[in-house]
Write a structure and sequence with these properties.
Strand order of the largest sheet: 1-14-10-11-12-8-9-2-5
CATH superfamily: PK beta-barrel domain-like
Order of helices and strands: EEEEEEEEHEEEHHEEEHHH
InterPro entries: Benzoxazolinone_Detox_Enz (IPR052353), MoCF_Sase_C (IPR005302), Pyrv_Knase-like_insert_dom_sf (IPR011037)
Distance between the termini: 39 Å
CATH class: Mainly Beta
Oligomer: single chain
Largest sheet: 9 strands, mixed
Low-confidence stretches: none
Domain MOSC: 30-167
Pfam families: MOSC
Strand content: 15-25%
Shape: globular
Protein name: MOSC domain-containing protein
Number of strands: 14
Length: 218
């Protein structure tokens, strides 16, 4: 197993008007001092505006690699949001974990909580709006630097300065990058066999199971 990775920052945010009062969002998340409770549906003090597509047990916590910020500074001309953690609505920031090294079903000790990787993030229009209309959504899909979600298996607490430690990796062949490529980035067109094999991954979140079924039927 790999060495524990330091947690640089923990972010939370409240739902507020985003693109007018009828389209609220909690994508604007800011660092939280001190320990934060980790529960089945996420972090204490964190919200999701549209529970049809955000939040829930399989999207309780969003982890985005701070490793990618250098790429985004080049793409977005050092946008001011990139000066702090949470620019992409993430709850957890680290350096040393990416979509290429994290796998579906990985179990991590996050502070004192136990979490499991459930799916990669599927970016949406809110990222474009947050960055002033720049095509962040499309660039994120193309670069496949999307981050991932955790489900919470054991509740606890987490704070900046704690570590995240890999405890178990039952599906080492299914990185977040590979799965995202098949389901979102178009790799299924040349890897039907991989898309079919993905059906055996019992830890895959339900929205991505449905996405797989749609692609198989296309």
């Amino acid at each position: 197993m790999t060495s524990p990775v330091p947690i640089l920052s923990v972010q939370c945010g409240k739902a507020r008007s985003f693109q007018g009062p009828d389209k609220p969002s909690a994508i604007a998340k800011t660092p939280v001092p001190g320990p934060v409770g980790v529960h089945r549906l996420g972090l204490d003090g964190d919200e999701q505006a549209d529970l049809r597509v955000h939040g829930g047990p399989d999207k309780a916590i969003h982890h985005y690699p701070h490793d990618h910020y250098a790429f985004w500074r080049d793409v977005l001309d050092d946008h001011p949001l990139l000066a702090d953690y949470g620019a992409f609505g993430e709850n957890i920031a680290t350096v040393g974990m990416t979509e290429e090294t994290v796998c579906l079903g990985d179990r991590y000790r996050l502070g004192s909580a136990l979490v499991e990787v459930s799916q990669g993030r599927q970016p949406c229009w809110k990222l474009d709006h947050r960055f002033g209309g720049q095509p962040v959504n499309a660039r994120m899909v193309k670069a496949r630097c999307t981050g991932w979600y955790y489900r919470v298996l054991e509740e606890g607490e987490v704070a900046a300065g704690d570590t995240i430690e890999l405890l178990d990796r039952p599906h080492g062949e299914w990185t977040v990058a590979r799965t995202f490529g098949l389901l979102i980035a178009g790799d299924h067109k040349r890897d039907r066999e991989g898309l079919e094999a993905l059906g055996s991954l019992d830890v895959l979140a339900e929205p991505w199971r449905k996405r797989r079924a749609q692609l198989l039927g296309a």
